[in-house]
Design brief:
This protein has 105 residues and is mainly alpha-helical. The chain has three helices and no strands. Helix 2 runs antiparallel to helix 3.
Length: 105
């Protein structure tokens, strides 16, 4: 029971956190923070850039890109599988023809 809940929770979070909507939400949070409390010193700018930009924008973008690449890989894998199955059928058909010719002779 708890395993199914954990699986559902992880899948839901992964889907939500890797969506382009989440990226936009993080950008809005970033810009809002920058407007409400702009960094004043170089150290504050470095902290803002390293923490806020990387954590709130870069990571969701990377997750989104990873999700897109995963879907692309899955599509390629499915196409390759379908082609291999078709070649397999053709090979069996030719093999059956050869066996029939050998049995007649």
């Amino acid at each position: 029971m708890i395993y199914k809940f954990n699986e559902w929770l992880v899948n839901t979070l992964a889907t939500s956190l890797s969506s382009i909507s989440f990226v936009y939400i993080c950008i809005i949070i970033d810009v809002t923070e920058l407007l409400l409390q702009p960094p004043q010193t170089i150290q504050e700018w470095c902290t803002f850039l390293s923490q806020t930009v990387i954590q709130l924008v870069a990571l969701p973008v990377l997750a989104f890109v990873s999700k897109l690449e995963g879907a692309k890989s899955e599509r390629i894998l499915r196409e390759t599988h379908d082609e291999a199955c078709e070649i397999h059928k053709e090979t069996h058909s030719k093999l059956d023809q050869i066996i029939n010719l050998l049995n007649k002779g």
